[in-house]
Design brief:
about 270 residues; alpha/beta; Rossmann fold; 9-stranded mixed β-sheet
Length: about 270
C-alpha cells in the first residue's frame, strides 16, 4: 500500500507505505530529498513520535520513519522480538529503498535496534545518535522487572502501561506537558499485548554494545536527559572519556522530543547536517 501526499506544486513530499515482510505488514514513511536520515522510535511508541521533528529534517534530507515490529501499523512476528529481529526489519526497508548510507537516530529501544543494525551493517552508518538510550545491556534487576511486567501484562495491561509510561517523564513534565503526555499515552495504550511482550523479551535479551558503538566509524552522539529515570546518564558519561563519542545533556526526562523539544531539535539538526 502506498499513500502519497503532494504539495501545491504537485510534487510528492510524503509517502506512507507498507512492505510484505515474513508474512506480516511492515509500515514506514518517506519524506523529503537529499542524504538519508532514518528515525527509529522507542518502546510503546510509533513513527508518530517524530511528527514535529520529521518536517524539520525533511527540508534538507530524505527522512525514513519505520514502525518497529509490534508497534504502530507494523504487525508482530511472534512473542519475542529481539533487537536483531527488529534490525533485520529496518534493513529490509533500507534495502528496498536502495539506501547505501544513512544517519540513524534511535529513541530508547530504537537506539538498541540501531546498535544491533550497526553490528550487522557498520558500513551503512554515516552517523548514529542514541537519543535517551544506552549501549549497555539490562541489569539483572531490570531483567527481573521486565519478566514481572510481562506476567502482569496478561491480566492488567492498561494499568501496567499507564504506570510504566509515567516513569518516562520528569514528574513536573506530566503537568507542564499534560496535553502531549496524554497524546503519547494514548498511542502507548494502542500497542498490542503481543507487541508489548515481544519487545520486552527482546530488550531483556540484548547484549552490551559499547565496543560496537565506540568502534563505529561514523559521527556518534548520545542525548541524555538529566532527570531520565530509565537511563543512568552519569554512568554513560563516565565511559565516554577517551572516545570520539559526542554527547548533549538536556534538563528533563526520557521523552526529550516532548520535554526538551527546541533544544533537541537544535542538537539533532546539527547532528544530521555535520
Amino acid at each position: 500500500m502506498i499513500e502519497i501526499f503532494i504539495d501545491d506544486k504537485s510534487k510528492p513530499i510524503f509517502a506512507s507505505m507498507t512492505l510484505d515482510y515474513k508474512n506480516i505488514k511492515l509500515h514506514y514513511t518517506v519524506s523529503g530529498k537529499g542524504d538519508t536520515v532514518v528515525l527509529l522510535h522507542g518502546f510503546l511508541e510509533t513513527i508518530e513520535m517524530w511528527k514535529d521533528l520529521e518536517p524539520e529534517f525533511a527540508r534538507t534530507h530524505q527522512v525514513i520513519c519505520i514502525d518497529l515490529l509490534g508497534h504502530g501499523q507494523t504487525e508482530s512476528l511472534g512473542y519475542v522480538h529481539t533487537m536483531e529481529d527488529m534490525a533485520d526489519a529496518v534493513l529490509t526497508v533500507i534495502k528496498h529503498l536502495k539506501i547505501k548510507r544513512a544517519k540513524v537516530v534511535g529513541h530508547s529501544m530504537g537506539g538498541y535496534v540501531a546498535l544491533a543494525l550497526a553490528e550487522q551493517q557498520p558500513q551503512l552508518f554515516e552517523g548514529l545518535c542514541l537519543m535517551n538510550s544506552t549501549f549497555e545491556a539490562d541489569s539483572k534487576e531490570r531483567k527481573r522487572l521486565r519478566t514481572r511486567a510481562n506476567d502482569m501484562a496478561k491480566t492488567n495491561f492498561d494499568n501496567l502501561v499507564r504506570m510504566s509510561f509515567a516513569n518516562l517523564f520528569a514528574p513536573e513534565s506530566r503537568v507542564s506537558f499534560k496535553t502531549e503526555y496524554e497524546w503519547a499515552l494514548d498511542i502507548a495504550l494502542k500497542t498490542s499485548l503481543q507487541g508489548y511482550m515481544a519487545a520486552n523479551e527482546g530488550m531483556k535479551l540484548r547484549s552490551n554494545r559499547f565496543e560496537i558503538f565506540k568502534s563505529l566509524k561514523a559521527h556518534k552522539l548520545i542525548i541524555i536527559g538529566k532527570k531520565d529515570a530509565l537511563i543512568n546518564g552519569e554512568q554513560l558519561l563516565s565511559k565516554l572519556e577517551n572516545t570520539d563519542i559526542d554527547y548533549a545533556e538536556l534538563s528533563e526526562g526520557h521523552m526529550s522530543h516532548i520535554e526538551n523539544k527546541s533544544e533537541l531539535t537544535y542538537f539533532l539538526l546539527h547532528f544530521i547536517e555535520k
